[in-house]
Amino acid sequence: MTTLAIDIGGTKLAAALIDREMNILDRREMATPASKTQDALQGCLAGLVAPLTTRAQRVAIASTGIIQNGVLSAINPENLGGLAHFPLVEVMARLTALPCIAVNDAQAAAWAEYRSLAAEVSDMVFITVSTGVGGGIVSDGKLLVGTGGLAGHIGHTLADPNGPRCGCGRIGCVEAIASGRGIAAAAKGELAGSDAKTIFARATQGHPQANALKQRSAQTLARLIADIKASTDCQCVVIGGSVGLSEGYIELVSTFLGEEPKTYRTQVLAARHQHNAGLFGAALLAQEAMP
Ligand code: ADP
């Protein structure tokens, strides 16, 4: 059975055909529509999946935001504005005429990464550092979703009570500081208006402000990992997302984590499935839900 897996992020949309052995047969990507209205997102998704649908038997969606009973609600409207209540499963089932499931993207990615770790790992946490900061927790071999789908939204834990206001409404969330959007929002002077990718490229060239922004993101993430270790006693943390997987970022996070007391340290690994972790996780969860 072939799954049409779809990953909905704040910056990009990806879709792939994944077979039973978890091989990617075809993969497409496009930018998330700038307007982020229901109609715009639906239109983009229709175009993205059109060339893939006839070869699939089911659809598995991994999306940023809270997913409950197949409905997407954006926790940070700045990442997926206008999507307070988007009936994702209903829309995609209608569009493709295929059975469909939907899960949070970081929860899905956590499941894919957990399944690729050694059998002795029963407790792990996945963190995506991308447009936002998302997470997924596997505890005692089980993916935590929560009663309302909120479990693992660790990007909205407190990093700095005097920090910037997050799009979710809280002040000083990890996401408001460490994410791609948070990094870009803090840029000043000649870096103002640059995205995180450009800022990190400038950091590599030795630009002091760019370097400080990269360090601030990595240090915030290291403190989050120490908090996660204290609350879950995980055996490792796996990092994904384009900011998280950028060159030298995990090494920097590990260096900052090394400054925390030993009790709060844990192994920090790069996502084995790289940018496809969400797609693989959704496909795996669909395979388990609809064998
Ligand atoms: P999504 O949030 O849609 O899942 P990504 O994981 O690609 O997408 O994250 C997008 C964010 O990552 C943007 O803020 C972008 O500027 C940033 N980004 C992309 N490539 C890099 C890079 N090489 N270094 C640092 N940041 C990057």
TrEMBL record:
Gene3D superfamilies associated with the record: 3.30.420.40
Top-rank taxon, per record: Bacteria
Gene Ontology annotations of biological process type: N-acetylneuraminate catabolic process
This protein's UniProt keywords: ATP-binding, Carbohydrate metabolism, Kinase, Metal-binding, Nucleotide-binding, Transferase, Zinc
Entry keyword ATP-binding: yes
Pfam families named in the record: ROK
CDD domains cross-referenced by the UniProt entry: ASKHA_NBD_ROK_EcNanK-like
Pathways per UniProt: Amino-sugar metabolism; N-acetylneuraminate degradation; D-fructose 6-phosphate from N-acetylneuraminate: step 2/5
MF-aspect GO terms: ATP binding; metal ion binding; N-acylmannosamine kinase activity
Signal peptide residue numbers: none
Keyword Heme: no
Alphabetized NCBIfam families for the sequence: NactlManKinNanK, PRK05082.1
Subunit structure: Homodimer.
Protein family: Belongs to the ROK (NagC/XylR) family. NanK subfamily.
Name under which the protein is recorded: N-acetylmannosamine kinase
Organism: Dryocola boscaweniae
Upper lineage: Bacteria, Pseudomonadati, Pseudomonadota, Gammaproteobacteria, Enterobacterales
